[in-house]
Amino acid sequence: MSAVTPEPRPKSLMLHLDGVDKSFKRGGQSIVVLEELSLKVPTGEFLALMGPSGSGKSTLLNLIGGLDRPSHGSVVVDGQSIDSLKSSELTRWRARNIGFVFQFYNLMPVLNALNNVALPLMLTNLSHAERRKRAEIALGIVGLGHRLKQYPRTLSGGEQQRVGIARALITDPKILLCDEPTGDLDRASARDVLDLLQVLNRDLGKTIVMVTHDPQAAECATRILHLDKGRLIRESGSGANP
Amino acid sequence: MLEQVLAILMFSLRTVPQRLGSVLTAVFGITGVVMVMVGVLSIGEGYKKTMKASGDPAVAMVLRSGADTEMMSGLSRQDTRIIKDHPAIKQVDGTPAAAAELFVIINLPKRGTGTDANVPLRGIQPQSYAVREKFEMLEGRFFEPGRNELIVGRGAVGQFEVELGKEIQVGANRWKIVGVFAEGGGVAESEMWTDAGVLQSAYRRGDTFQSMYIKLEDAARFTAFKSELIRDPRLRVKVMRQTDYYAEQSRTITTLVTALGAIIGTLMAAGAVFSAVNTMVTAVAARGREIATLRAIGFHRVPIVLSILVESTLLALAGGLIGGFIAYLLFDGFRTATMNFQSFSQVTFAFEVDAGLLAMGVFYSTVIGLIGGLLPAVQAVRSPVADALRSE
Ligand SMILES: Nc1ncnc2c1ncn2[C@@H]1O[C@H](COP(=O)(O)OP(=O)(O)OP(=O)(O)O)[C@@H](O)[C@H]1O
Ligand SMILES: [Mg+2]
Question: In the list A1, A38, A170, B99, which could disulfide-bond B127, CB 3.0-4.6 Å?
Answer without folding.
Answer: B99
